[in-house]
Amino acid sequence: MELYTYYRSTSSYRVRIALALKGLDFQALPINLIAPQGGEHRQSPYLGINPQGRVPALRTDDGELLIQSPAIIEYLEERYPQVPLLSRDLVARARERGVAAVIGCDVHPLHNVSVLNKLRQLGHDEPQVVEWIGHWISQGLSTVEQLIGLEGYCFGAEPGLADCYLIPQLYAAERFNISLDAYPRIRRVAALAATHPAFIKTHPANQPDTP
Ligand SMILES: N[C@@H](CCC(=O)N[C@@H](CS)C(=O)NCC(=O)O)C(=O)O
Questions:
Q1: Ligand 1 pocket: which of 15, 54, 75 to mutate (most atoms <8 Å of CB)?
Q2: Each residue of 116-142: pLDDT tens digit?
Q3: Which tens digit of pLDDT belongs to each residue from 55-113?
Q4: How far is the CA of 34 from the centre of ligand 1 (A)?
Q5: Range(s) for CATH 1.20.1050.10 in the chain?
Q6: From ligand 1's centre to the CA of 67, what distance in Å?
Q7: Is the C-beta atom of 50 inside 6 A of ligand 1?
Q8: Which neighbouring-strand residues pair with 2?
Q9: Which residue's CA is minimally distant from atom 17 of ligand 1?
Q10: CB distance 197 to 162 below 8 Å
Q11: What is the DSSP letter of 156?
Q12: Which residues contact 46 (CB under 8 A, 6 or more apart)?
């Protein structure tokens, strides 16, 4: 498989974690979102891969191109069920997907590169942009703190879908200097992930395009 990725893209990071947890090999094809001549994601040939101009995109073993991290992760879960990311229990699965959706639908889209650039274009200065980011990430983490379990990863002894979303979001929180002091459960999950080979391998500091 080939993954179009950018080292600090949290959506790409989610897919990298899912692949690594499942023990699946892939070739990383870096797409530079902040290239000086304009992001590679907004230019040919990448627009031929993903007309939305965003990462990640996955080329499967069968040569099919997939976009959108939730769809890619669901594909991996269904195609390679051996190491499941979701519980068997229907209600538990819905809760795990709920945490993923808080982050993937309600937090990350609000601090995406293009959204922040639009705020700047509309005249918001950097302190306002920073306040915007902090507000939405803190609100999302506060929600997640109340949804996840009291021990282990988000939902138990093994990492799963919710962890694929949470750990990249924590990387973004750190980038934007957002304190995790108020979230002891989340800090516990972060500490566990920091020692897990799949999370170490997929961390933005360890990618082929890490500067
Ligand atoms: N919902 C999409 C979001 C993808 C996305 O927004 N990716 C970001 C990087 S994390 C991106 O490519 N941003 C480029 C831009 O906003 O111009 C997914 O989960 O794959």
A1: 54
A2: 999 999 999 999 999 999 999 999 999
A3: 999 999 999 999 999 999 999 999 999 999 999 999 999 999 999 999 999 999 999 99
A4: 13
A5: 90-199
A6: 10
A7: no
A8: 27, 59
A9: 114
A10: no
A11: B
A12: 4, 31, 40, 53
Q: Is omega for the bond preceding 211 within 30 degrees of 0, making it cis?
A: no
The two three-digit tokens of residue 113, written as one number: 């590169």
CATH of domain 90-199: 1.20.1050.10
CA 123 / ligand 1 centre spacing (Å): 23
CATH of 2-83, one of 3.30.420.240, 1.10.3210.10, 3.40.30.10, 3.40.50.720: 3.40.30.10
* 12-70 pLDDT per residue, tens: 999 999 999 999 999 999 999 998 888 999 999 999 999 999 999 999 999 999 999 99
Does ligand 1 have an atom closer than 6 angstroms to the CB of 32?
Answer: no
| Residue nearest to ligand 1 atom 14, measured at CA | 54
- What is the pTM assigned to this prediction? 0.98
Which protein residue's CA is at the shortest distance from atom 13 of ligand 1? 54
Is 29:58 a contact under the CB 8 Å cutoff?
Answer: no
Q: Is 33 in the pocket of ligand 1 (CB under 6 A)?
A: yes
Dist CA 158 CA 166 (whole Å): 14
